[in-house]
Amino acid sequence: MSTKPPQSPSLRSAAEARLSDARTPASTRPAEELLHELQVHQIELEMQNEELRRAQSALEESRDRYVDLYDFAPVGYLTLTDTGLIVEANLTGAALLGVDRAKLLRRHFTRFVTPEASDHWHHQLMCVLLRGDRQICELAMQRADGSRFYARLDCLCRAVGDPLPRVRIALTDISERRHAEEELRIAAIAFESQEGMMVTDSHSVIVRVNHAFTRLTGYRADEAIGHTPILLRSGRHDKTFYDQMWQTLREVGYWQGEVWNRRKNGKIFAEWLTISAVKTSDGDTTHYVGTFSEITKNQEAQAEIHRLAYYDPLTHLPNRRLLLDRLGQALASSTRSGCHGAVLFLDLDNFKMLNDTRGHAVGDLLLSEIAQRLQTGVREGDTISRLGDTISRLGGDEFVVVLEDMSEVAEEAAHQAKAVGEKVREAVGLPYDLDGREFHCTVSVGITLFFGHDESVETLLKQADLALYQAKGAGRNCLRFFDPAMQSALDERSALEADLRLALKLGQLQLYYQAQVDSARHIIGAEVLLRWTHPQRGLVMPGQFIPLAEESGLILPIGRWVLETVCKQIKAWSGHAASRDLRLAVNVSARQFRQPGFVAEVQQVLAETGIDPTRLKLELTESLVIDNVAETIAKMQALKALGIGFSMDDFGTGYSSLSYLKRLPLEQLKIDRSFVFDLATDPNDAAIVQTIITMGHTLGLNVIAEGVETEAQLERLDQYGCTTYQGFLFSQPVPLAEFEAFLGL
How far apart, in whole angstroms, are the C-alpha atoms of residue 93 and residue 23? Predict the structure, then answer.
């Protein structure tokens, strides 16, 4: 059998021809024939090598062209892992994000998404990974230097050589398009203003008018377009008037003045007209834009302007501006008469619930009805003013009552003010017929007295507001007076807030751990509780500083610190057999959870600590969940996709509803301690606990009871089917060292 490689006939012929040109006449000896064959093969190999070199050169040129097309394409190309890490990027993508390509790799794409768009991006990433099909979205992005731009993201999930999916992203800067769209929207809104507008071409032929033009002139758009403004001439201006107008327009490109025009019905009216020339970059006029408004001295119009400036349009009561003026006058009157006055600050209880459940239209009906009751229920001559339209933080359901000419004796004046306050409470507390349905409402009242100019208007309002805050804290539907002790409490609160701002920096905050056990009393996890040890105040309990942290916004950095510390502890315990399977539950505040970047924050902490996310459980309250169910579900699903679990804290104390409960990605309900306390002796609490356990099991949820302190409580819970517990019967909240000793670490 021949051992020669197969040869192409054409290659063989070419090799034979090349050899015949280079050798002496052929010998007939066998050695010469063998040499001939070897020489032919050599030439064939050289020719094949030449072909291979040409093919390699062509491939390299093609590769270089592809790399150039990839790197310098007008679109940024990125490749992400399923956790959002950037593993590939072209030069355009790196330039769009403002980072060198080498420094861009292995960074989280989330860092280049603005906080307010973070949740949208995480939802988009989840959709791409779960569905696998193409997803398109537009996001607000931020470069490494902090500058922002809008981008379109074309996302596609692909598996590339390994079992882990990769997300391909085509990133396009659409800032100019968004800016143009915004300009168009602004222009469209401006065009449909309350002023009449018409646009003509350079020959003064009308090409467009707005609705206000039709309202003011009577001409519809189809009746005006195609005509010139001569259509409106009244005949009151001569040719010289219009010649001067056009001369000014040609010289300066702008004219304004008073013009008499005629409506379609023949009525002549005066208008204030402004005309602007629209010019190209070369200075050529392409269009003229005219805006006009009717000039009137109608007294009703002037009265309407006054009402809008000083009265609330919904209730027709004086607004904040008029209140401040009237209250200033009341202080002056008190100085002259020597009589006391009072400011009553009113706030409707649970008004937000009415708005959320039945809509703002029904809420407006309630406000209007309450305004009428206040006008008829408070003594004649008192000023009643609704706040909220100008002070947005007051919400729109707050009223202020100013009482004048009361007793010269402070005690008697206080008694009179209290009588009016109780009268108001009774009037507001009567049932309402709102759109065919009965509704009941209560009001909280804060009162402060004034005498002369002892206090400023602003101070009086603050004092009344503080008294209102006390009334709310006392259970609502009651009234409270301001006194210096309240101010002292306010000062103490301010001092506590100042100390709290330093607590995190000075390392005064500490985490305590309270064990959670199963029916065999084996520790399966712990709830993490925050404590504050102050050098002068001692141990400050959460009930004192957590609400303050919520209101001041300090809960955000504190919550981030708690989350990081807990994740680091989970990581530290992962190497010990006695602690590696423990789950730590962390309470998340409403303000913290509502932050646009909360999901990204949690994801970043998980990435930095490298923990198993299933070891972390977040506890949410019912009030947090029902505030915005759709947003809450989206965030919970995004976090659940990372492996994090959820428990509903204090279950049964809020506004529980199966309609939302079954939609939430929960894994656990936590029975509030208030039901567990009298579980063994109170049939009502026993029935509630049994219902919660049954409902949890029906929904496929684990149920844990907190506040378990006695064997009788434990026995009853076990009887009802609850097998997870937390309470003093097993362990009090203890510092880390004690808890680890409890675990035997």
Answer: 61
* Residue 364 lies inside a defined structural domain of this protein: yes
b vs e for 93-120, b when ≥16 Cβ sit within 10 Å of the residue's Cβ? bbbbbbbebeebeebbbbebbbeebbbb
Q: Structural domain tally of the chain? A: 5
CB count within 10 Å of CB 368 equals: 13
Q: What is the C-alpha to C-alpha distance for residues 146 and 164, in angstroms, rounded to an integer?
A: 32
In this predicted structure, the answer to whether residue 296 has a pLDDT above a threshold of 80 is no
Mean pLDDT of the chain: 84
Distance CA 363, CA 395 (A): 12
Both 451 and 350 in one domain: the answer is yes
* Phi and psi angles of residue 182, each rounded to the nearest 5 degrees, phi first: -65, -40
Task: List, in sequence order, the alpha helices (H) in 338-402.
Answer: 351-358, 360-377
* 598-609 and 555-573 helices, crossing angle to 10°: 30
- Answer whether 200's CB lies under 8 Å from 290's CB: yes
Answer whether residue 307 is part of any domain.
no
Same-domain pairing of 448 and 526: no
661 residue type, one letter: L
Give residue 389's pLDDT band: very low, low, confident or very high (50, 70, 90): very low
Which pair of tokens denotes residue 534? 């102050």
Domain co-membership, 166 together with 217: no
C-alpha span between 484 and 463 (Å, rounded) = 10
Provide the 3-class DSSP secondary structure of residue 262.
strand
Domain match, 618 and 710 both: yes
Phi-psi region of 553 (alpha: psi -120 to 50; beta: other; left: phi over 0): left
pLDDT, tens digit, 9 for 90 and up, residues 5-20: 455 556 666 666 665 6
pTM above 0.85, yes or no: no
Say which range, 35-39, 227-231, 367-371, has the weakest mean pLDDT. Answer: 35-39
pLDDT at 707: 94
Confidence label for 301 from pLDDT (cuts 50, 70 and 90): low
Quickly count: other Cβ atoms within 10 Å of residue 430's Cβ. Answer: 11
Residue found under tokens 């002790």:
485
Q: Flag the least confident range among 182-196, 381-395, 402-416, 599-613.
A: 381-395
* 392 has pLDDT over 50: no
Q: Following DSSP, what letter does each residue of 169-234 receive, concatenated?
A: EEEEE-HHHHHHHHHHHHHHHHHTSSSEEEEEETT--EEEE-HHHHHHH---HHHHTTS-GGGGB-
Q: Are 640 and 694 within one domain?
A: yes
Asked whether residue 600 falls in the same domain as residue 702, the answer is yes
Ramachandran category for residue 737: left, alpha or beta (phi over 0 → left; psi -120 to 50 → alpha): alpha
Evaluate whether 255 touches 167 at the Cβ level (below 8 Å): no
601's tokens: 């924050």
Asked whether the predicted pLDDT for residue 23 surpasses 90, the reply is no
Q: What's CA 289's distance to the chain center, in Å?
A: 40
pLDDT of residue 582: 95
Q: Is residue 694 part of a domain?
A: yes
* CA atoms of 39 and 47, how far apart (whole Å): 12
CA distance linking residue 65 with residue 58, whole number of Å: 11
Q: Is 488 within the bounds of a domain?
A: no
Q: Which residue has the tokens 């506004």?
A: 655
* Domain containing residue 239: 192-296
Which of 107, 113, 114, 111 minimizes the C-alpha distance to 89? Answer: 107
Assigned token pair, 628? 């915005």
Q: What is the pLDDT of residues 103-133, one digit of tens each?
A: 898 899 999 999 999 999 998 888 888 887 7
